[in-house]
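Bench log, entry 3. Co-assembly request; chain sequences pasted below exactly as received.
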Amino acid sequence: MHGISRKTPSREEQDATALKAAELRDLQSQFLHLHHNKIYTKEALETSAKLLEVNPEHYTGWNYRKLAVQYFLNHQSETEVDSEYIQSVLNEELKVVENALKKNFKSYGAWYHRKWVLSKGHSSTDKELRLLGKFQKLDSRNFHAWNYRRFITMLKKISDEDELQYTTDMIYNNFSNYSAWHNRSVLLSHLFEKRGKGHCHKESVLEEEFEFVRNALFTDPDDQSGWFYHLWLLDQTVKLEPFLLSSWPPHGSSLYLSVDDYLDGRNLLPSVHFQSKDRMFPLILYFSEAVEGVNSSTVTVECEYYANDNVIWRPLSSNKFGFAQAWLTYLNFPDEVHYLKDCPVKIVVAPFPGIVSSSGISCSKTSHIEFSLCVPSHDRGHAEGQTMPRISWKDEKFYPHATQSQDASLHNSLQRLKITEEGKSKTSDWSMKTIANEIAHCRELLSSTNCKIGKLTLARLLMAQNKLISYGIPNDGIEVHYEEILGLYHDLMKLDPTHICYYEDEYSLVQLKQVTSSMESILKYCHQYGDSTSPSMDSSFCLRLNDLSLSRIGSVEQLLWIQMLDLSHNKIRSIEGLEALQLLSCLNLSNNKFCSFAALDPLRMLKSLKVLDISYNEIGAHTVDTRRYLCSSPMTHTVENDWNFKEFTNAGVEMINHWDVFFIFRDVNLIQLDITGNAVVNDQLKLFLFKLMPSLKWLDGENPN
Amino acid sequence: MCTIFNMFTRMFLPDFHEFHQIAYGRPINDRMGELKIEKHVKYILSVEKRKDDFVSVVMEHLRLNGAYWGLTTLDILGKLDAVDQDEVVSWVMQCQHECGGFGGNIGHDPHMLYTLSAIQVLALFDKIEVLDIEKVSNYIAGLQNDDGSFSGDMWGEVDTRFSYIAICSLAILHQLDKINVETAVKYILSCQNLDGGFGCTPGAESHAGQNFCCVGALAITGSLHHVDKDLLGWWLCERQVKSGGLNGRPEKLPDVCYSWWVLSCLIMIDRVHWIDKEKLVKFILDCQDKENGGISDRPDDAVDVFHTYFGVAGLSLLEYPGLKAIDPAYALPVEVVDRIFVSK
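Structure output for the full assembly:
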């Protein structure tokens, strides 16, 4: 019981409560009798008032009183309207509510009854604000009172400016009033919306707010309230319109479409060659945030052999509402097209607004991507179904990527991964200046205190600054501070071990930003796969981000060209975002912390994926699946109703244990899969996997034939 | 937000006392046996019989909620067979009204709050078929407003709690197509705040309990991509205070009930690793009445059924050994949810 001490009551206390209980029981049954018989006499109303005073949560009691009011009002209208009488009836209700709230001012029923009475057009603004003032003084965080306050201000058309002043007063009274900070963000959002394009206005307001909240933060740096508000201000400051961040193929590249099986020895330069048996060529657009509206009217594809109208863009995300950061389409070269040499392809994104972010902001910048493509003639007589060697992820199969002359082109195309000039959003210097200013203040605060959220805020501010710099916003030569940010997160892990995993996740994201920040840096993690003695015969290109203590993945926009990726020996739990890597054919996720098959949901969208290693994870070792509601399943109503387990249950598979396996692996066409070292693995599961994926040739190194 | 499902207990609120500072705990596996399962089962069964003390009388109007809390706890503890199924089912059905909705007890008015509890209790017993599904689902669907929101009953109180209830109930009944899911989701999103969380109506402050309702409703409708998981996850993980317990809003005291509201959200958005689970396990275990059974809001406070439920459900979400897994969105054992959605 809230705040009630656990002690055995004395004999007298027991007797007293037994008496109270008997009285209340009696009152409740009396009341129900009146209610069921629709008796609205004065005495009957008094009974209900008494009941609600003792037990304000008795919702049927409030319903009864509403029925009584309606009864009186209807009764009235038959004769002539006596406004004084109506007034007295409604006044009585307000009184009952007040008494109930005195008993329990967190009673939903009482507050709603008051709203209901007021909607009948009664009571003065002053009176309601006075009452609220009383309650909000007693408990300045009571969210019922704050909700009621918003109701009254709307009903009585009290201006947002006046209410803003009220929050200022409340905050000066106590900096730690999160409810007031919250209401401030609501009111300011309204004001920003109302004043629409008055950008200058928004900027000066935000500057004032930064200063206002600084008072609170410097007064008590360990109080959370102000920091949450500060984070919101930061978000408002760096809010940009969505724009195209990267693409595959990158601008300025020339590619060779090969129709051979994968890993056939000619695959030296991943961003230059791309294999597809079906002469399907993927195009990927990656935006700065999730957008909708990518289609043939907002994005035009110009190619001699391809009519733009046929281009259908698909969002790469598991949600059914059509918002995604990454969008995919295929250029499909029909058989009639024989040999193409240097066929130019031009993609123009958003010649007019139409691509919109989930927060409703339009992408208004035009971006151009131009590349050229060589397509060999159809069917070079390559034998189908040729036995393919099993991929091994052993260290000795990889050797460092040697910088050779042929890499020049690879180098080139990677350098151009970022979309140039016109794709960038021109944000005013204001954001940059404001962030720099906040960084300075934050450093000042941290020079005198070792405050946890202060450190976290500094890390976030520096990341925000990096983001603006990477978007090409003029920055007066400010350096990117990866090492400092990593250092801050490292400190935080020691300072606040309760939230260590949060800091580890953030740390990983910064680490990956750093790794992918330049070509030189990426190349350090690139390896050749195959036999080092004859690289030209059996060799492929692999990005190895293994054994880096990564707990989370990110920066995928820089990796759209990757076909072979090693993420093994990390602490990764989820591969959210990996669906953007549409070229991926070999993926090593072994020795991580995946807890369920549901965590592999993004794989459903990787149509080129052939080799997957998820051995030595924690699949099946947990009773709680944290990805259960982030994957496609019948529980989330995200799968069509066309599935049927019969075929598998007949084969003796317990579907209730393996529905996630079904919904994920029925959509992928693996040739090689490793799952050993997971608690879930047994013969039944293996059999099920073979049945689900007829393409599967090796499962944990075993071949069924 | 213990008051979220009409809990009456806040009437005793003002006398908070200092909570205990609790040091680091041992690994969860070492704690096996520290949960007094037998005592809690006995406690729950005794509450059911104790109809005459003051607390039971005050709670009479929400007895159906109480039944859901108690029975779900028993199921998680593996002791659901300790109650007479037929007796419970027959009592539940007596709470139903002509309109299709359920009251909190026999003779009390119909309301969404109790309709969900009724459906959940029947689901626990695998007895959904005793319902006139058409009738119940029409009652719920009939409470959707034009803006997508839901009223709690005919009197029109609007709250995202009711959005959750409608969506959860109809999903269990396989009747989601009876409502406009798109506007329902839009309304919930209009209640999203600066901290990534949700309030009961647009503009209302985020609260752990309300977050559960909104995140749960979005989860069930496959719309979690609308949630800024990092922002909300950080707000939620910062609910853990030094004692290991969780509070429901910034700068508030911890309370066992948030072990459910906060944890379930963190699991649904895959951020539960951001808190220290062992410290939370210890906090919950310290709130047990080790002699008479039951769990309270904070150590040494008086126990009650809902905190017992929230404590046990919380421990289940923390993978405490020997407990059945509970589903974070439907608030029913995972095996019940899988039975409803997978075995068709």
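The radius of gyration of chain B is 19 Å. Chain B has 14 helices and no strands.
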